[in-house]
Amino acid sequence: MAQTTVEGVEGVLAKVGQHLGHSDWVEITQEQVDMFAEATHDHQWIHVDVERAKRESPFGGPIAHGYLTLSLVSALSGQIIEATGFRMGVNYGADKIRFMSPVPVGARVRASATLDEAKQFEGGVQMNLGITMEIEDQSKPAMVASILFRRYL
């Protein structure tokens, strides 16, 4: 269940500037990283070669792809905000994405979201969520991003 529920366009607009909550913590596994590498054809050794990453990488072991971290935003943001009164919603894009820290395999991450902006358009509303992907027990986030979602009436 989402931490914040809003009803319709007016409910969305009323939350602009507010922190909406946090998702649950999610562990990043080597299996996830390997499956992401298969799906994206990105088999760089710092992600998929565990022994080499332990020996040669500056991170001490394999790390998640930055885009794997980004791809979790859709699922994790659903734990944070639920917008009711709409027939559908879509991911609309991103205005800014920065990968601030590597996510070691085995680490846990969670999303934190703020509704930075909302714009009504004919037939719905566009939400700009400020998303921070936190790494458990680390002060520097894995990622900060400005993610756009649209909800249609």
Protein traits:
153 residues; alpha+beta; Thiol Ester Dehydrase, Chain A; 6-stranded antiparallel β-sheet; 6 helices
Structure description:
The chain has helices at residues 8-13, 30-40, 45-48, 50-56, 66-71, 73-80, and strands at residues 4-7, 19-22, 26-27, 81-84, 88-99, 108-121, 124-135, 143-152. The chain has a single domain, classed as Roll (Thiol Ester Dehydrase, Chain A). The strands form two sheets. Strands 2, 3, 5, 6, 7 and 8 form a six-stranded antiparallel sheet that branches. A two-stranded parallel ribbon has the order 1-4. The radius of gyration is 17 Å and the shape is elongated. The mean pLDDT is 97. By secondary structure, the chain is α+β, with helices and mostly antiparallel strands. Residues 15-125 form the MaoC-like domain.
Major sheet description: 6 strands, antiparallel
CATH first level: Alpha Beta
Specify Rg, calculated over alpha carbons.
17 Å
| CATH superfamily descriptor | Hotdog Thioesterase
Give the structure's gist in a few sentences.
It comes from Geodermatophilus obscurus. The protein is built from six helices and eight strands, in the order E-H-E-E-H-H-H-H-H-E-E-E-E-E.
